[in-house]
Amino acid sequence: MNLTDAHVAVTGGGSGLGAATARRLAKAGAKLTIVDRNAEAAEAVAAELGGVAKALDVADPVAAETALDEAIAAQGPLRGLVNCAGIGEAGRVVGREGPLPFEDFERTIRVNLLGSFNMLRLAAARMVPTDPLEDGERGVIVNTASVAAFDGQIGQAAYSASKGGIVAMALPIARELAKFGVRVNTIAPGLFLTPLLEGLGEEVQKSIAATIPFPQRLGDPDEYGRTVQYIFETAYLNAEVIRLDGAVRMQPK
């Protein structure tokens, strides 16, 4: 897909991987809708890129549908969705205070998996009726999983389950939407220098980076954004899950 003037919505676009992706796509000429639960962050990135900001909970069906329709009215037909919104809370199944609270597991699944699916289904429904582009393509969807989907650590049961669900739904959804010219791909990032890791301090960052085979550093969020751009621009790439992790394989803890 040629990104020039293509309308793309990025969830979690107010910071981290989402913001880096939005900046990368904007450089390629895309029109951006920045979706984030943090209204101030969404508005800041949207203002920087000349886009539209929508503050919402991605797992809220009504709010998400309204936001997409408003964005389409302002930006034109929706051609892309990048799901970066998510949370990374940890907790042992059986900890010092007893079993993991059910609501903690449920919240992670709700935001990461149900939120991604909610945005995907609503975006796809708006891509399907659009006029096809010159190669017959109507839209591109990129979901964010994690290496934890494959080698989750102790304390990551909820997070790994949520990201594993994202990996598992990639193929069936890509198969279903293929006849409409909508591609669905997934990126499973490893250890990236996002706000979460930035807050741990330089020494902790170095110790984490030392576990990565090559290059022995934390991932640059722009590398994630470039991978998203590659997916958009490579029409033959469909139903794929790409590990973007410097060959890291997570240890049990």
UniProtKB/TrEMBL annotation:
InterPro entries registered for this protein in UniProt: KR_dom (IPR057326), NAD(P)-bd_dom_sf (IPR036291), Sc_DH/Rdtase_CS (IPR020904), SDR_fam (IPR002347)
Gene3D superfamilies: NAD(P)-binding Rossmann-like Domain (3.40.50.720)
PROSITE patterns cross-referenced by the UniProt entry: ADH_SHORT (PS00061)
A GO term, aspect molecular function: oxidoreductase activity
Keyword tags: Oxidoreductase
Domain of life according to the entry: Bacteria
Domain Ketoreductase: 6-177
Record carries keyword Oxidoreductase: yes
Enzyme Commission designation: 1.1.1.-
Family of the protein in this entry: Belongs to the short-chain dehydrogenases/reductases (SDR) family.
Protein name: Levodione reductase
Gene source species: Pseudooceanicola marinus
